[in-house]
């Protein structure tokens, strides 16, 4: 693998961009650097700074995972005022091969290349584990999911923007929450309650239900979930809605090969999902509840999985 071409890979989130080098499909994790998006007007100067610090190596390929829709090779970031296309990658890196993926597509291409030690089982599935489609669900600055289909010699990871579909409403409390959210945005989407800022909205809602006018950051809420109060109520609501939406997506895509939760918020919240009812809400599908046991769910604890996915994808084109 030391003779494989040197490539540049990047993962653009709503807050940070991670950049690294790869040789073929192997990520050179020791080269990874993190950049704050607010310090840069666009992606190109981030990549130029990275390459300059790395000694200006010759790059054979470049692949970027972007947290936003990609159409005709152009990514429009959902929670960041950046647009990324192949021409920009070519100018910034000089690479003859370039690709732009949705960030969840990159996570999908990483499946099978993430160390098992970085997979935390949340809901065990059938043993032995079934072959079949897989599903990645990302919760961070935003929310999204992508189905993964393996065919002979080919992996297809379909893009979506399902975080902007309507949030699940099952109870009267869910309806009050949806009405609370849409007062600000005019629409209560999944991402409005299942994301970093979504957790903050859930806290504002649970505080309001308790007769309080209070706001906390997602980090402050996560730190306070051990004590009774609005933070714990928000966390329980988050886990329940997350389980319900993951279950909805499982029924849509039938991922018998497993569901993989990724993203900074999913990882930060991993220890709370089980105790706070994620699995119960995931399985709560009426006469199809028993069927939900066919879908194992685990959390991807590898912060660089999207970079691995970019490297893996580049090695196939």
From TrEMBL:
Transit peptide as UniProt keyword: no
A family per Pfam: Glucokinase
Record's keyword terms, sorted: Kinase, Transferase
Example of a GO cellular component annotation carried by this entry: cytosol
GO-annotated molecular function: ATP binding; D-glucose binding; glucokinase activity
Gene Ontology process terms (BP): glycolytic process
Keyword Kinase annotated: yes
InterPro entries the UniProt entry points to: ATPase_NBD (IPR043129), Bacterial_glucokinase (IPR050201), Glucokinase (IPR003836)
Family membership: Belongs to the bacterial glucokinase family.
Protein name: Glucokinase
UniProt source species: Cereibacter azotoformans
Lineage summary: Bacteria, Pseudomonadati, Pseudomonadota, Alphaproteobacteria, Rhodobacterales
